[in-house]
Write a structure and sequence with these properties.
Protein name: AAA+ ATPase domain-containing protein
Mean pLDDT: 83
InterPro entries: AAA+_ATPase, ATPase_Atu1862_pred, HerA-like, HerA_central, P-loop_NTPase
Pfam family, one: DUF87
Organism: Kaistia soli DSM 19436
CATH class of one domain: Alpha Beta
Strand content: 5-15%
Low-confidence stretches: 315-323
Structural class: alpha/beta
Largest sheet: 11 strands, mixed
CATH topology of one domain: Rossmann fold
Number of strands: 14
Radius of gyration: 29 Å
Distance between the termini: 29 Å
Length: 501
Amino acid sequence: MNIELGKVAGPHGGGAEAMLDVEELLATRLLVQGNSGSGKSHLLRRLIEQSAPYVQQVIIDPEGDFVSLADRFGHVVLDAERGLGELEVIATRVRQHRVSAVLNLESLDVEMQMRAAGTFLNAMFDADREHWFPVLVVVDEAQLFAPAVAGEVSEEARKLSLGAMTNLMCRGRKRGLAGIIATQRLAKLAKNVAAEASNFLMGRTFLDIDMVRAADLLGLERRQAETFRDLSRGQFVALGPALTRRPITVSVGTVETAPRAGTPKLTPLPAEAAAAQRELVLAPVPVDLVRPVEPRVAAPSAPTMHDLLASLAREAPLEAAEAPDDGLTPGEREAQFLAIARAVMAEPGAPFRGEAPLYQDFLVRCRIQRLPATLPLAQFRFLLNLARTGIDSALAETDDWQRVVELARALPDEAQLSFLLIAAAALTGSPCPSDAELALRSGTHSAGRARSRLRHLEKSGHIVLRVDIRGHRAAVLPDLGIETAAGDARAPYGDGSVAAE
């Protein structure tokens, strides 16, 4: 299915139509680059409008420019001022019901935009296999969500967003996700994200580093990079299997909708006389609007090492200062925390909710039961892993299980649950959990991720995997001297769900 982007520009173009093959685009992805004012957003709008009748679309919109698509093309506008758990559920519904949507992030700061976009894209990526319908995923200002270097945002937010963008561009094709990413600065965009695109539309660019990188992506010589400075607004150099086999210059066509904030236009200044303008500006300010002037205080000098040691010596031990006064022993308190974690995980869809909403749910339940909410996040993650195993209370009270728990505490967070599930199977004489069970219990649909965690456990010596003549897998735990029964690694789990490869 071909759509018209515009006309071929230049003396040899002859006004020919510049076409884009949507089906080929679904398999090869697209990168759009252009400095501010080059017509990049206009190009995205043209592409979205022309392809809207033929394919589902999801737009990650950091500035609210594309919400106007809703009136003309029926896109659902999603306000990002929701909990991350809500965004996960909504993203799953978007894929399930094949709804075109615009995720409007304009009301959030940069870090929350990254968290919201990362959560939404990951939920789309992790959708059930039966919902892997083709979707054009358009990400404007992609350098915000896949930065080349760490900025002023938290490392957690950067990893979440960058991981989601990498999944979209590197592994999204098999799941029906076709990434269209647009950026003002190629130098600010992560290279592993940009390199996965096979189609390119390069607009006006002035900085040398961006011109050289654009020329490298298009396979042009360095001396040809200067041509990007000569492009007019709305002109782009196109190349790729969905566009053209040889570089051509495209003048983008007109659009039916418009952004809420258009291009600034010159407006005549007010005609009032200078004296009248002075009176307007310097009119008395109401007293209640005047901010009190706070005296400037000099910054304190940095403490010396002697001062720091003396301060630490005066402080009370941390354990004594933070010990909650609830009348419970540490063992009783941990048992109650574990019971609450199990209740959280018993909620429908809990395994696939993000860590942040699960933690908030946990804290609320603690307050309801009048337990002090002093549990560190790392300890909460371990409690969640214990709750995800679903073992009964009889097994949980045995000495063997307590030994399993102590060994699991020393493992990395991502490997703990797999170890616990295998140990529980060995203690009960059950078959080794399948890839699907390991994946779905840990809140992912990726069987490959589950196998990767098993390889980590085997490499570290915590388990030894044995495969019999039927291809069934058993796991030995050398530190505990126990072994699971042999089980089919490819068997479905629960209601027949099978994790994706």
